[in-house]
């Protein structure tokens, strides 16, 4: 056992989940290696949580219907539900309408309504649109002496795409940055300060009012966008989606569009630039963009973990997880499991096969995966062909202080 591994004790792990640690933001992998090798199914009693990290166990939890999303589906009917303060109710109400936090049948209904927006046909239609945005942003980078790849490119591209898909007018896009960041903090679930509570409630009220208004506009004058499509579906079948569910679905898609693909593009570029010649290799063989995207998803997973609740006593890896207990599955660790991936700590842009869990698996498999993959491929191909000599500045990597979403706050480059 290495020295580094012995430094993790249960108190240290609990502290990691309870508070930020700069070390973990910079490099969570020694900790993941410890989990994989020493504590693959770990019970953190004081946090009523299990941490599951091996590829096989993570897949099992995500696929097994005994692990659910809604607490009320996990515990006996007569069990009291955790109470929510009056001021937090709007936030709770919004999250309860996200398909991500629902089980069937509500999950199936909510997911079914927007799934057509991510079909291969829609992706074909979006290709030239995304390419145009990537070219436009690359032009903007070319005019700067030391562009920040995140602000100028990786963040902006997915935000424009998702806002267009939903039908958010371009002049309103800037509003969404702070709202989306507020929800990213809720999902991380670490900060509980009064300031955070106040910001989240404000963001929820503002974004709900915004979408209520936009939905009303589209009801009277429909356009070619997702909100108009959802309204048309609602007219055909009146119980299909309530207004609150429609607002929540728009917010979920916007948050997903803001907080994830930016990290895929940013992480992939930094990894490519860390190895001399890798970007040039991609510009010579653009077909490698598809496997490079998969490898970046595996190696630095933009979403590091997710959670479920056991609805019965279940045995995983020789330990018994009891009904009603929470399970944190570590996607970022599972994607570095040597039992699944040869040389898991080597970044190899041609790796195949590469059946990673960056988009999870099972009923909640990322709905936006085809869009994220397409955006990632076009983004990398465009950068490789426009700036084959791009390099990192000497600055240290500037990781976001977030244990759920792994990505860079800034990434200055030289072209
Ligand atoms: C690289 C980018 C992305 C990554 C790594 C990612 C990752 C994930 C993961 C891990 C989940 C499953 C969570 C769980 O099972 O608990 C998920 C679900 C989801 N993602 Fe993504 N995502 C990405 C991009 C997107 C985009 C661009 C969209 C849409 C605009 C999107 C929409 C969704 C939705 C709606 C769900 C919920 C699906 C369900 O509950 O059935 N994602 N994503």
Q: Please name the fourth-level CATH homologous superfamily.
A: Cytochrome P450
Helix content: 40-55%
Output mean pLDDT: 90
The CATH architecture: Orthogonal Bundle
Which descriptor suits the 3D outline?
globular
Bound compounds: protoporphyrin IX containing FE
Alpha-beta classification: alpha+beta
The number of helical runs is 20
In spatial order, strands of the major sheet run: 1-2-7-4-3
Q: Kindly, what is the distance between the CA atoms of the first and last residues, rounded to a whole number of angstroms?
A: 43 Å
Percentage of β-strand residues: 5-15%
* Overall number of domains: 1
Tell me what the structure shows.
A hairpin with an 8-residue loop joins strand 9 and strand 10 (408-410). The protein has a single domain (3-75, 84-414), classed as Cytochrome p450, CATH 1.10.630. It is α+β, with helices and mostly antiparallel strands. The longest helix has 27 residues, at 194-220. The chain has helices spanning 3-6, 10-18, 22-26, 29-38, 55-63, 71-74, 89-96, 106-114, 120-142, 149-154, 156-166, 176-188, 194-220, 226-236, 243-259, 261-274, 278-284, 288-299, 331-334, 369-386, and strands spanning 41-44, 49-52, 67-68, 305-310, 314-316, 319-321, 326-330, 391-392, 398-399, 408-410, 413-414. Helix 9 (120-142) runs parallel beside helix 20 (369-386), helix 12 packs across helix 13 and helix 16 (261-274) packs across helix 18. Residues 99-100, 111, 162, 252-253, 256-257, 260-261, 264, 302-303, 306, 331, 358-360, 364, 366-368, 371-372 line the site of protoporphyrin IX containing FE (HEM).
